[in-house]
Write a structure and sequence with these properties.
By secondary structure, the chain is α/β, with parallel strands linked by helices. It has one domain (33-207): Glutaredoxin, CATH 3.40.30.10. It is built from 5 helices and 7 strands. The longest helix has 29 residues, at 179-207.
Length: 208
């Protein structure tokens, strides 16, 4: 009898536990799509697209000097941790005329890490407002066309987030002014979407 119990503990229980956690990841390890199809940045910059990329999307506005702290927080807490993953890009939308400010920001960010996956899209004010409205969130841009929030856009150009987060409504974006928000929420959500695509890739390869 004791041998049977030992065998169950050593062999059966680990298998059951694995199946339980594996099924949990499959069934629950996905971020909800909050906006089905956002507009593409290619309408402002033909050299860039959100299609077939996992994108961290932000709006730094014209007053970039006062948004450097937000960019550094994002760079340190999210970009440095995940930038080596394939198909992941960071896209910041800024008004035309901000080129010199962006160059300075990139120079400062580049002291900390390879910033080859940071991209900046320049648009007219009206184009930026239209593009942001297409995200269909409960957030807004300020007078400088900026927001401290960044958004996760999947490869099908859907905005991912959290539904009824902490019973306080949907979470569309993550506040780069808050290190706690980046550490406690965004890190987990980026992990989830990367794992989702890795699992899908493994399944596709296994089905071939």
């Amino acid at each position: 009898m004791k041998k049977t119990v030992v065998l169950v503990i050593l062999f059966v229980f680990p298998i059951v536990a694995y199946l339980f956690f594996a099924s949990g990841v499959t069934n629950f390890g996905k971020l909800p799509v909050l906006t089905d199809a956002v507009n593409d940045v290619s309408k402002m910059d033909e050299s860039l697209t959100l299609r077939d990329k996992i994108t961290i999307l932000g709006f730094l506005g014209s007053d970039i000097e006062h948004k450097k702290g937000n960019a550094f927080n994002l760079n340190q807490k999210i970009y440095k941790r995940f930038y080596e993953f394939n198909d992941l890009q960071f896209v910041m939308v800024v008004p035309k005329g901000s080129e010199s400010k962006v160059a300075e920001l990139k120079k400062e960010l580049g002291h900390l890490v390879d910033i080859s996956k940071w991209f900046f899209v320049y648009g007219d004010d009206q184009d930026i407002e239209h593009f942001f409205a297409g995200l269909d969130t409960d957030l807004s841009l300020d007078q400088n066309l900026a927001t401290p929030y960044v958004f996760i856009i999947d490869k099908d150009m859907g905005l991912r987030g959290r539904k009824n987060d902490d019973n306080q409504g949907n979470t569309f974006g993550f506040n780069t002014a808050s290190v706690a928000d980046l550490n406690n929420k965004m890190v987990d959500d980026v992990k989830i979407i990367l794992a989702e695509y890795r699992m899908a890739l493994k399944k596709n390869n296994a089905d071939r």
